Amino acid sequence: MSSRWHRAIAELSAQGHAARAAAQRVDDAPSEERTTAVAISYTAETDYLRSASTLLRAHLTDRRPPRRLPVARVWPCLRDVWKARALDRLGGVWRAIPGNAALRQLRSAPSDALLAAVVEQAEALQASLYGDRNVDRLYESFNPERTGDPVADLVGGGRSAPTLPGFPDPGHPLNRAFPRGRGMRIQPGRQDEFNQLSRDRFAVHTRALAFGDAVLALLIDRRAGGVAPEPGRLRGAGRWVGRERQLVPDRAKWPAKLNGYQAATLAGFGWLVLACTGLPLTFGQRADLLSHYTLVFLAAGLVASTGTALVYRHGPKLITAPGPRAALPGVAAAVIAFMVWQGQGPVADYYFAGPYDRYDRQYADGCLAASPYRHDAVQAMVDDGVLTVTPVEGGTTLRLGPAEDGSTHPLRPLDRATRAVLDEYGC
Questions:
Q1: SS3 sequence, 382-408?
Q2: Is residue 376 within 8 Å of residue 392, measured between CB atoms?
Q3: Which of 88, 164, 234, 417 has the least CB density, counted as fewest CB within 10 Å?
Q4: What are phi and psi of 131, to 5 degrees?
Q5: Could you check whether the bond before residue 402 is cis, i.e. omega within 30 degrees of 0?
Q6: How are the residues of the chain apportioned to helix, strand and coil, as percentages rounded to the nearest 5?
C-alpha cells in the first residue's frame, strides 16, 4: 500500500468518526449551542460523503488519491453566514450524493460483496435525492368543503383546484406557488407514495454515513491489505465538534424595535459609513482619477458594504447599554463622521494639490517669499506639463515641472537658468 493511500484512508476514517461524534453531539449539546451543533453535523456528514466519493472514484480508475480530501472551509469572518447556509442546505449533502455516472461506473466494475454494499448504499442515496426532489410535487391546491368547522374543512373532502394554463400537473412548482384553491393537501390516492418519499428524504443522513462506511471497508480491503489504519489528521467541520461556542460565538441580537437612544446610535453609525464612503470619491476627484470611475465607485461600494457589515455584526453589542448610555457609541460615531466629512477635502487637497498650490507651498511661501518670485509679484501659467513663472518686475522666467493636476510629485527646475535662480535664493 502506498503512503498516500494509507494517509487518505486514515483521514477518511477520522472523518467518519467525526461525523458520528457530531451526530451524537446534537443530542448532548446545550440548547443555546444546538443549532451550531446541527450545522456541524450536517457539514461533517457531507465532508465524509464527498471524501468517500472522491477516494472511490480514484480507486475505480486506479489513480492516486488526492493529497487533501475535499472538506468544507469555515472562514473566520463568515461563520454566521456559513452556519445559516449549512442549516438551510443540510450542509450541501444533496450536491455531494454520487450521480448517475458514478453509479453506472460502480455497476460496471467487477462485483464482489464489498462493492455490492457500496452500490446498495449509493442507490439508497439516489432514492433519498429522488425523494427530496419529488416529495413536494405530491401536494396540490384544493377547495375544501364548507362544513362550518375549520378543522373539518382542512382534513375533510373537497375538490382539486384548477391548474394554471399549460401546467396540468397539480404538483408543479408554479401551481403550488400560485394556488387557485383555498388549501393545500396531498393528492388523493398518493399518500403511500408521499410517505415513502418522505422516509427516503429524511434517511439521507443515515445513508450518507452508511455509504462512507461501505467505501471505507472497500478501501481497507483493497488498498490497505485488510488492516485498518489508525484515524489520521482531521480536517473540515469535524474539528469543531464540542467547540460550538468557539466556532460561532453567542452575539447580541438586534432588538425587534429600537428605542430613541438606539435609533440615534444607529443614525450615528450610518453617518460614519456615509462619510467613509465619500473618501474614495473625494480623493479620486482630487487626484484626477474620475476617468477611472469604475475603480473609484467600486472602492466606494466596497467601503460602504464593509461598513454596513461591521455595523450589522457589532451594532447590537454597542446598543445594549440601558437608557441614555445606549446613545454614547452613536455620539462618538457622529463626532468621528463629522471630522472625516470636514477633513477629507483639505487632506485630499494637500496631498493632490495643483501646480499653482504646489508652487506656493514649495517656493513662494518659503525660500522665495522675499524675492521677486513671491506669490503676488509673478504671473504663472501651465502649458504642456510645464509651470512658467514670470516676475512682473522682470527677471529670469522659471520653468518648473511636472505641472499636473492631482500629482504628488514636487516641482523641479527644468533648465539651468531656473536652477541658478533657485540656488541663488537657497531653494
A1: EECCEEEEEECCCCCCEEEECCCCCCC
A2: no
A3: 88
A4: -65, -40
A5: yes
A6: 65, 5, 30
By CB atoms closer than 10 A (0-12, 13-18, 19+), residue 268 is buried
Residues 205, 45: Cα–Cα separation, whole Å: 7
Q: What nine digits make up the cell of 97?
A: 450524493
Alpha-carbon Rg of the chain, whole angstroms? 35
Give me the mean pLDDT over the 290-319 stretch: 88
- Specify the pTM: 0.69
Cβ partners under 8 Å of residue 179, min gap 6: 141, 161
Rounded to a whole number of angstroms, the distance between the first and last alpha carbons of the chain is 78
The grid cell for 204 is 439521507
In the prediction, which pLDDT does 39 show? 94
Which residues face 381 on adjacent strands? 388
Tell me the three state secondary structure of residue 139. Answer: strand
Angle (nearest 5°) at CA 255 between 273 and 278: 5
Which of 181, 171, 177 minimizes the C-alpha distance to 141?
181
135, exposed or middle or buried, with CB in 10 Å at 0-12, 13-18, 19+? Answer: buried
Across the range 43-66, mean pLDDT stands at 93
In this structure, the strands spanning 398-401 and 412-413 are: antiparallel
Contact 122, 109 (CB under 8 A): no
What number of CA atoms fall less than 13 Å from residue 354's CA on the CB side? 7
Q: What is the pLDDT of residues 209-224, one digit of tens each?
A: 999 999 999 999 988 8
* Structural contact between residues 364 and 392, judged by C-beta atoms closer than 8 angstroms: no
- Rounded Cα distance between 306 and 308, Å, is 5
Angle at 67 between CA 63 and CA 69, to 5 degrees: 95
